[in-house]
Amino acid sequence: MSGIGRASVLIGAGTIVSRLTGLLRTVVLVAAVGSVGSRAGDAFALANQLPNNIYAIISAGILTAVIVPQIVKATAHDDGGRAFVSKLFTLGTVVLVVTTAIALLVAPWLVQLYAPSAPADQLALATAFAYWCLPQILFYGLYALVGEALNARRIYGPFTWAPIVNNVVSIAGFLVVIALFGSDLTAISDWTPDSIALLGGTATLGIVVQTAVLLAFWRRTGLRVRPDFRWRGVGLGHIGKLAGWTFLMVIAGQLAGLVQTRIVIEASGTGASIFAMQNAWLIFMLPYSVIVLSIGTPYFTQLSEHAAAGRDDEVRGDIGRSIRTLGLFIVIATAALAVAAVPASRIFTNSRDAAVEASVVLLCFLVSLVPLAVLFVIQRTFYAYNDTRTPFFFTLLQCVLVVVTAVVASATLPLQFLAAGVALGQSFASIVQVIIATWLLNRRLGGLRVGAWMLSLGRFVLAAVPAAGAGWLTFQLLGGVDGWTVSDKLLGAVGAAIIGIASLVVYGAFLALLRAPELKPALEIARRVLPGRR
Fold it and tell me: What domain of life is recorded for the organism (predicted)?
């Protein structure tokens, strides 16, 4: 198998284990704080979301769009990029420390900003959790800086495997919370300073340990990093120009997310709200992370090299191959998750009725799973050409649509379906975004051979229809919404797996009947992750 294939398998295997332990982490957390209708659960979800949002504003977009291509270029310097990386890491650490300190100082106002309509007791609990969670900003940033540097040097494994340690630490801490203070602590009055400190402190400790594990692999980069406050002379000004558009893009995304949170919090205590929506997104992101990130990340590094060398035809080839490969897996993942939505949602809820309600949110997110896989490739191709301006504009359009659809959902839907309406609006916005982005890239490169990879996606969808039918029939034979697959968290996982396997078998059979040329390389990737294979 090629280097791309080996890297994809390494990332994919690590991502699978990471996501599975992450799912278990969330299962334990739901057991502790509840999910649908839990005011305490929504308070913790809001507080634990804050460091992610703030980190995204200062760092995430810049890292994804800019750092990997720039580190790849810096390796051509006489020192192999050492001076560049030292200055970059020094600047990044300073920004992260200052931002974390400011966030802690203004924590009550941050919580109020995201949940202005929440009752005073819920705001107080969320603020208490926020003080414990906000230090994660620093460690998220350091983890991402080190991880992207490793990826740029084609060292993919540690960045993918380190989160497993975080999940193990979190699971242990959440189990201690349950052992000491009980389970299903959904009411605000259930929480004491000690239980707040244990839950919030555990969430942050996991990120600290995750970062420490990743730092242990730094020597493999061959780069010696030292504090360097002389930030001129190695192109950081160029990065600033590129990152300016990316920064604005992330700001737009965060503002859209802020509107969503302010709207969805209105349903807290009544139906699916912040925490239930986060859990539906977690399920949605499982196939995206395992499939899209594991296959797409190595392609992005190769695509960046081809773009830097001006080999546009090879870039077009990279785009087509990656979308076809991603599409084969992501289409069946979408179909299988759709028919298994109720048992899959039962894993992160504490009752059958809550699972049914949460599954509607998941289905609304799933509408955009295939388009987002395509967008991953298209958007990062712009980044590979150092173009962050164009992605800003098509992302801005998406953010505007997210806000408009969320406001419409708030005005027209009952609280029970508010989260689902917001999720569906986000999916619609993403579909429009990928259409516009593909059209713009097609113009820039003088053609993307869209017809070829759209034909492949059509073939995959054709095979997925009977596969989804088989999965739905399996779900009904297992009792449907009144059956054993929705009676318990563990049984929900087992039921979802059975439904998924049934769908996958039929999908593979129909692809073989259609003689899909993408099936053979896909099977090769699958064989690589089977036990005992090399």
Answer: Bacteria
Q: 398 Cβ partners below 8 Å, 6+ apart?
A: 256, 429, 430, 432, 433
Closest of 166, 248, 181, 460 to residue 333, by C-alpha:
460
Q: Phi-psi region for residue 34, left (φ > 0), alpha (ψ -120 to 50) or beta? A: left
d(CA 439, CA 26): 39
Q: How far apart are CA 322 and CA 319, in angstroms?
A: 5
Whether residue 55 contacts residue 95, with contact meaning beta carbons closer than 8 Å, is answered with no
Distance CA 424, CA 434 (A): 16
What are the residue ranges spanned by the domains of the chain? 1-234, 240-527
Tell me which amino acid residue 287 is: P
Query: Which tokens is 385 given?
Result: 């050409």
Q: Given its phi and psi angles, is residue 532 left (phi above 0), alpha (psi -120 to 50 degrees) or beta?
A: left
How is residue 221 annotated by DSSP?
G
Tell me the pLDDT tens digit for each residue of 287-335: 887 777 666 666 667 777 777 777 778 778 888 888 888 899 999 999 9
In this structure, what is the dihedral angle of CA atoms 274, 275, 278, 279, given to the nearest 10 degrees? -150
Three-state helix/strand/coil letters over 149-166? HHHHCCCCHHHHHCHHHH
Alpha-carbon distance of 114 to 172, in angstroms, equals 29
Nearest alpha carbon to residue 216 among 276, 324, 143: 143
Report the share of the chain in percent with pLDDT over 70: 82
pLDDT in tens, 433-472: 999 999 999 888 887 888 888 898 999 999 999 999 999 9
Q: Using CA atoms, how far apart are residues 259 and 399, in angstroms rounded to an integer? A: 10
Q: What percent of the chain has pLDDT over 90?
A: 51
Given a contact cutoff of 8 angstroms between Cβ atoms, the answer to whether 366 and 333 are in contact is: no
Q: What is the mean pLDDT of residues 257-266?
A: 95
495-522 tens-digit pLDDT: 999 999 999 999 999 998 888 777 777 6
CA dihedral 204, 207, 208, 214 (to 10 degrees): 180
Helix and strand totals (H; E) in the chain: 23, 0
Among 71-75, 200-204, 340-344, 436-440, name the one with the lowest average pLDDT.
71-75
